[in-house]
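hey
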């Protein structure tokens, strides 16, 4: 079924547009109505000559993107040929392939943590193996999964027929991850409603090349559209759904089935629902996912190397998130993991991620610090700046406060929330014992108490777990709420869980708490410091995989043992207190 084309000859045979009838009239309005978002005005300005120097200094130089044409999808290399060499007004390179190839979405299938985690779920529940592989490949290998589904098969990842086998017909499509022709073929139908959540995005499976359609934010001149169509088999047409959060919601709203103690499927669990967190925040009326995650190029830019006009806003495909750690692993083990991005691409992606984490994610401040007898009383305020909970997304993410007091000679007098080389947090009950967890605090008085903003998952018996298929609910969810989020929100799946519910100053926008610490006879002046730390793979989430003997799992553990899983400092502040 697959034919490999090399897209070299650009035949300029202009045919009538046979693709018009595919945009079916939109049926019922989505049950969730969204605000209009970034509007795509086709502004025309004169063209500046692009000067691009894409050279690599040290590290892996990267591999070409796959060039494969399937019946329903093409891999990124077949699109990149014409969507590269693009610059903005400042001369910065905004080439779509360059921005995209080092993102977590481009590497969603190669991601060694994801592969290990699917293997682990399959080992826990071998009788559900097929269903698990099918589910997990839906969003991480969307081109292979959708293609298999269109032929009536399920998505198999492991074994001889699996997508991960290099001999599989669907290997290239699978490994290209969340690629160009996935997002750009998603139809308007059902977006923002249950029908499209959990990877239920709607992609046409009937049309064949050259009548397939690629949606984009702009209107395109006929002659240019025909160039793309005759060479790629897809005709670009305007589809405003591309600019809506509801598009992202199709994969970023995930419900997973869970089993009870007898191994029977017993219900569905909201594993990650950033779209709802955003929807019930004030950002719904001000910023879309795209606004924050696809930064706007400076001024105008051509959208293809053949374009005649500059467009604005031009959305840069950098999809900046929080997972600097995994980007580092993908770079470090790039050859083994067959990544296409170069070290330079990864360095740029890590840099963008750190910048977002440190400038736009959260802040920490002292409201008041005073000495009262032999006690330091410090009031700390943490604010969430993101468009959803912080942390958001996959439940292994956590943020916590590291609070220290040093005496006049620089000796530590008090510390809460320090961390070890292996990525565990000192004094965090969950890291010490998988059956325990750290409560949400209103005040901290002991070094073994740590404020950790996180989710703790429980199974149907109430025991805590990091296995997705056993996760039936949240024991704790005190992740910082976004601005405008009503804590008493009626929506079950994004509710605050545990002690934070009773904490009056834990509200939309942030949290405050007090440190009240006896420092005895410590000599001044005292330095009181607090930092907000963030980690994408909490200690328990990797540690709980240790007892499993399977290639994908042992490989992931080797990576995590060699690339230090240390937290990123999101924000820090310090004051001196005389004594
Ligand atoms: C995760 C989904 C996603 C992937 C993957 C993706 N795009 Fe996009 N693309 C978008 C969205 C969303 C927009 C429009 C953003 C807006 O209007 O705010 C866009 C816009 C564009 C545009 C218009 C110019 C611009 O950047 O604004 C082009 C051209 C384009 N994409 C091509 C590509 C190509 C080529 C690839 C693969 C290398 C790709 N896209 C991968 C989501 C995606
Ligand atoms: C032969 C060159 C060529 C190839 C190959 C190609 N494109 Fe295009 N693409 C173009 C041109 C030309 C335009 C129109 C540019 C303009 O209007 O300025 C375009 C426009 C687009 C747009 C914007 C559509 C809109 O209405 O906003 C998107 C998105 C896009 N292409 C995605 C893709 C994807 C995905 C692939 C791979 C399946 C691909 N392109 C392959 C040349 C190409
Ligand atoms: C076809 C499914 C799909 C669609 C559509 C999709 N995503 Fe993703 N996205 C994923 C998957 C899968 C991952 C996780 C990859 C991994 O970590 O292995 C991800 C990860 C991310 C990340 C995390 C990056 C990081 O560093 O941690 C961001 C940010 C993101 N997506 C933004 C978006 C935005 C914005 C849109 C809409 C324009 C979107 N996504 C649409 C599947 C999708
Ligand atoms: C106001 C800006 C803003 C908006 C709007 C926004 N985000 Fe984010 N997002 C951020 C910031 C900042 C981070 C990094 C901190 C964090 O992880 O929460 C982030 C992180 C993420 C991550 C990565 C988390 C990780 O584990 O690496 C995902 C996935 C994500 N956002 C998806 C979305 C989706 C989907 C939407 C739309 C429904 C959205 N975001 C809307 C600012 C925003
Ligand atoms: C509906 C789409 C969807 C499905 C289905 C899905 N995922 Fe994901 N997955 C995502 C997104 C989106 C992210 C990124 C969230 C973030 O960065 O915080 C992600 C991230 C992950 C991560 C974290 C990767 C990292 O590098 O930190 C793991 C592990 C993971 N998924 C495992 C699974 C497993 C196991 C399954 C099957 C049970 C599965 N996923 C099914 C969308 C999906």
């Amino acid at each position: 079924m697959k034919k490999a084309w090399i897209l070299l000859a650009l035949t300029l045979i202009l045919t009538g547009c046979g693709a018009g009838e595919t945009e079916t009239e939109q049926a019922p309005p989505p049950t969730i109505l969204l605000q209009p978002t970034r509007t795509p005005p086709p502004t025309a300005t004169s063209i500046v000559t692009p000067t691009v120097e894409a050279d690599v200094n040290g590290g892996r130089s990267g591999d070409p993107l796959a060039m494969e044409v399937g019946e329903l999808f093409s891999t990124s290399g077949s699109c990149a040929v014409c969507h590269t060499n693009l610059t903005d007004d400042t001369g910065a390179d905004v080439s779509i392939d360059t921005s995209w190839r080092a993102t977590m979405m481009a590497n969603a299938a190669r991601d060694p943590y994801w592969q290990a985690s699917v293997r682990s779920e399959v080992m826990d529940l071998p009788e559900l193996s097929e269903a698990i592989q099918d589910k997990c490949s839906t969003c991480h290998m969307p081109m292979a999964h959708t293609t298999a589904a269109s032929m009536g098969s399920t998505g198999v990842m492991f074994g001889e027929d699996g997508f991960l086998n290099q001999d599989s017909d669907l290997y290239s499509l699978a490994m290209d991850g969340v690629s160009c022709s996935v997002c750009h073929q998603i139809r308007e139908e059902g977006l923002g409603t249950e029908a499209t959540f959990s990877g239920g995005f709607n992609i046409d499976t009937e049309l064949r090349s050259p009548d397939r359609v690629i949606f984009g934010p702009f209107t395109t001149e006929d002659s240019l559209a025909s160039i793309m169509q005759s060479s790629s088999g897809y005709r670009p047409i305007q589809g405003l759904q591309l600019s809506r959060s509801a598009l992202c919601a199709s994969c970023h709203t995930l419900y997973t089935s869970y089993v009870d103690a007898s191994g029977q499927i017993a219900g569905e669990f909201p594993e990650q629902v950033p779209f709802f967190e955003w929807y019930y925040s004030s950002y719904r009326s001000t910023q879309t996912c795209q606004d924050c995650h696809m930064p706007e190029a400076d001024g105008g830019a051509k959208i293809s190397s053949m374009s005649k006009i500059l467009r604005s806003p031009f959305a840069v495909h950098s999809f900046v998130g929080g997972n600097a750690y995994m980007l580092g692993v993908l770079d470090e083990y790039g050859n083994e993991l067959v990544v296409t991005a170069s070290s330079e691409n990864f360095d740029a992606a890590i840099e963008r991620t750190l910048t977002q984490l440190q400038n736009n994610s959260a802040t920490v401040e002292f409201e008041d610090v005073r000495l009262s007898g032999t006690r330091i009383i410090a009031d700390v305020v943490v604010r969430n700046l993101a468009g959803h909970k912080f942390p958001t997304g996959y439940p292994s993410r956590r943020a916590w406060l590291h609070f220290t007091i040093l005496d006049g000679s620089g000796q530590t007098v008090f510390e809460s929330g320090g961390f070890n080389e292996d990525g565990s947090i000192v004094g965090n009950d969950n890291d010490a014992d998988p059956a325990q967890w750290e409560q949400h605090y209103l005040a901290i008085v002991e070094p073994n108490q740590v404020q950790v903003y996180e989710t703790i998952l429980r199974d149907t018996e109430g025991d805590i777990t990091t296995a997705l298929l056993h996760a039936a609910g949240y024991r704790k969810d005190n992740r910082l709420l976004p601005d405008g989020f009503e804590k008493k929100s009626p929506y079950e799946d994004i509710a605050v869980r545990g002690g934070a519910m009773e904490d009056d100053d834990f509200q939309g926008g942030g949290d405050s708490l007090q440190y009240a610490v006896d420092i005895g006879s410590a000599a001044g002046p005292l330095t009181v410091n607090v930092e907000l730390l963030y980690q994408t793979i909490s200690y328990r989430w990797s540690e709980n995989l240790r007892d499993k003997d399977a290639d994908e799992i042992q490989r992931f553990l080797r990576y995590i043992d060699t690339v230090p899983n240390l937290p990123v400092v999101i924000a820090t502040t310090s004051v001196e207190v005389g004594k």
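Residues 245, 248, 252, 274-275, 278, 283, 287, 289, 291-293, 321-323, 356-357, 360-361, 386-388, 390-394, 397, 536 surround heme C (ligand 4) (CB under 6 Å). Residues 68 and 75 are 5 Å apart (CA to CA).
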